[in-house]
Amino acid sequence: MLSVLSNRTYRHLFAAQVIALVGTGLATVALGLLAWDLAGGDAGQVLGTALAIKMVAYVTLSPVAQAFADRVSRRTMLVALDLIRAGVALALPFVSEVWQVYVLIFLLQAASAGFTPAFQATIPDVLPDDEDYTNALSLSRLAYDLESLLSPMLAAVLLTVVSFPVLFGGTVTGFIASAALVLSVTLPGPRPAGERGVWTRITRGSRIYLATPRLRALLALSFSISAAGAMVIVNTVVVVRQDLDLSEEAVALTLGAFGAGSMIAALGLPRLLEELSDRRVMTAGAAGMTLALVALGMASAIWGVRWGWLLIAWFLVGAGYSATLTPSGRLLRRSGHAEDRPALFAAQFALSHACWLVTYPLAGWLQSACGSVTAMLTLAVLSLVGLGAAFALWPRHDPVEIAHRHDDLPADHPHIAAGPRHSHPYVIDDLHPCWPEDRQIARSV
């Protein structure tokens, strides 16, 4: 897995990701405590609303940013957005009203809506080999997991000597360091996607995404992930501080259990994905995550919330979360041409966060209005719905190459020089606007 770090460009990008994530992890803990400081027992509702605003920025602005990304140097774009994020994070410790949190979160995440898909779409161009890219995905997931594990622990240590607003300083430092590392390398330029209208460029990624069966299933799994993940991210601070009456350090350690489960799963995924299909690994991860949340909800309903059970459940939810989410980049890479990848990554970013836009405020509202047990069980049911939809939408047989016909093209078209029926890696594009019927796929085997 670590062999990909021999590539200098990827090594610097990975370091930029890790440093920025540590800063973001500190901000996650600090934001939860800021919400508690401003709203007390309604912190879950405040945090849920703040995160919903974050999702609005992601869903609406990410496709727009990527529609114009091929007009700008990737390095310039990434550095500028990192510096904008650092500036906004610098203002967070000085807020005194809930509405100020909402405004700053929108500005911060508007910059992230442009940064994250562009960053993700750059990695396949830096690492064109499939094995290298798979290892990079696992390393990227590991970086997220280490952030979930180490950032809360670092926050817990820092909170013993400083107040929580100081944690936002780590976020500022992380974004500035990330910008410096991106600036230190030369990145592949964006590939022109042809002359298309503005609306076509904005919607192209979503149209390709929604026309591809495996990506429709990925969207269903994203909903499953968001339902279980919202319970962890939004309500951990309330469950630990209010239901269990534990300390701020316990909040950080509980979030760390989620990160530990995700990290351990990420370490085993490269070898697992050599033996099993993406479909099997991802659906199994979603099933395990859902069952862990159901078990915790039922046990808490009978015996009350226990911290030990919460730590175990969050560990298992983290493992399932990682197994479901990590291979998604492989699906996106195989589902579009290189020039369409930025649009596809932006579509995944926007559509998956549309799921979070539903579950974040729902998790906060359920916690405030109905309590922890109802929130756990309701979100577990929604996670199960997403899993069931994924099974229905993702064919068991999902070949890369598909035999198909082009009766719509003239006989002298270069694409059908070998005849109107042929086989090649099939993706949605201008010549292939829809997916072949099942019987055509069956004949391609």
The total strand number stands at 2
Q: What is the end-to-end distance?
A: 32 Å
The pLDDT mean sits at 79
Topology order in helix (H) and strand (E) letters: HHHHHHHHHHHHHHEEH
Shape: globular
For the structure shown, list the relevant keywords.
445 residues; mainly alpha; two-stranded antiparallel sheet; 2 strands; globular
Account of the protein in words:
The protein has 445 residues and is mainly alpha-helical. It is built from 15 helices and 2 strands. It has a two-stranded antiparallel sheet with strand order 1-2. Helix 1 packs antiparallel against helix 2. The longest helix is centred in the N-terminal third of the chain and has 32 residues. It is globular and about 75 Å long. The two termini are 32 Å apart.
Q: Secondary-structure blueprint of this entry?
A:
Elements: H1 8-39, H2 43-67, H3 74-91, H4 98-126, H5 130-158, H6 167-183, H7 198-210, H8 213-243, H9 248-275, H10 278-303, H11 307-325, H12 328-334, H13 341-370, H14 372-393, E1 401-405, E2 421-425, H15 438-443
Can you describe this structure in just a few lines?
This protein has 445 residues and is mostly helical. The protein is built from 15 helices and 2 strands.
